[in-house]
Amino acid sequence: MSTRIINLHALRRHAHKIAAGTACFCLFMALFLLPSKHLTAAKAETFVVKQHTRVETQQFKGRLFPRESRTLSSPGDALLETLIVKEGERVQKGQILATLKSARLENELLEAKQAWIDTKQKYHTYEIWNDTRDIQAVKNQRLRAERELKRAKESYLSAARLYDLGIVSHNEVADLKTAMDDRALELETAKKDFQLAQEKGVGPEKQMAEIALNVAEKKLKALEEKKAALVLQAPFDGWVLWPEQKQDKDQKHSAKLFPQIGNVYKEDEAVLAVCDASGFNVSFSVDEYQINKIKPGMPVEITVSQLQDTPFHGTLSELSAKGEFDTGATAAQFKTVASVDKISLKDFVFRTGLSASVVLQDKNEALTIPISAVYEKDEKPYVKIKTPAGITEHAITLKETTPTEAVVLSGIKEGDEIVISHQAQSHQ
After folding, report:
1. pLDDT tens for residues 342-357?
2. Within 10 Å of residue 246's Cβ, how many Cβ atoms?
3. Exposure pattern of 386-403 as b/e (b: 16+ CB <10 Å)?
4. 70, 224, 322 from 230: Cα distances, Å
5. Torsion of Cα atoms, 207 then 208 then 214 then 220, to 10°
6. What is the DSSP letter of 248?
7. Which residues are within 8 A (CB) of 289 and not within 5 positions of it... i.e. 6 or more apart?
8. Residue 51's closest CA among 270, 273, 366?
9. 31 pLDDT exceeds 50?
10. What number of helices (H) and strands (E) belong to the chain?
11. Percent helix, percent strand, percent coil in the chain, to nearest 5
């Protein structure tokens, strides 16, 4: 009992010392946790802002379709006479694929050739008077015909008077009359020739003949081109495809036309199609949440299902400005096209609709900082920047964030020293 009383007395004597020590400890802790700029700056971990090259990768699924496709149609009502190729066969530019025959076209061509010959001969009769020397010659011929007619007329009149006097016979007078009539016909011909020569080939008759000749030449040329078009040739290196039949109102789906020898085609009706072998396109859809991350001209890497180990490199060529909603979709889909301009594989067989994987990579320069340096204040992102005067707060604008970094659009610049330490973040 006495020992316990002594201890209580000892505690009372040292109570002021214990209280003083506790106060010092609390003061020390308060100073340690106080938001002192100099103290934070001394212990803060920092990051120097720099421009970094970022590679954003996106992947889509799409379908192949020809980069360029040309339909070979019948130039007129014709019969398929020969078919040399099969669907999917690779062909070279200028290679004959099929031939057509048209009896109607042959008859029209014969008639056009004869019309051209006739108009050309008629036009030629006007061309021969283009030379002024011909005009003078015809003029001299007319003058000679006039003189000869005058002499023949004088001879006839003189013989007629002598006949009245009984000096010459009736036969002599008749012969002179016939000679005079012949000279008169020669004069009429010479006058017509002179009138035609005076026109010098530029009169209305020649102009009409020239117009008729031009029309005949154009018609003949058009028919000859149609006849040449009866031979179907590959317009470029590519693959042969069977064309699709035009969809009628009552049809739900278009059907393929399979060319066969003996098939009859109307004018402009498709017979074959050839797709370009130098490249291909891939069509795919991008939703509205990704549309702002892509742009025409971006490089793409395409893997075709038929050739998994052979990637093709191309560019994003088309991006639709109009979104479409598919059944059950919650976001608008934008039609997008990637193009491959060159294929080096000779054994690659193009087939419309093959599935393909499209990978887009966008490289850009951006200011990136650790995500741990960003904190929220007044519902806005902030960072702390270390300066010689201390640590200051700056509001920033973010483009996007990941679990490890943030891409900054504004609020900081390259070279700024950003605080990322836990001590600095404790002041949020």
Report:
1. 887 665 777 788 899 9
2. 11
3. beeeebeeeebebeeeee
4. 16, 10, 42
5. -160
6. P
7. 331
8. 366
9. no
10. 7, 21
11. 40, 35, 30
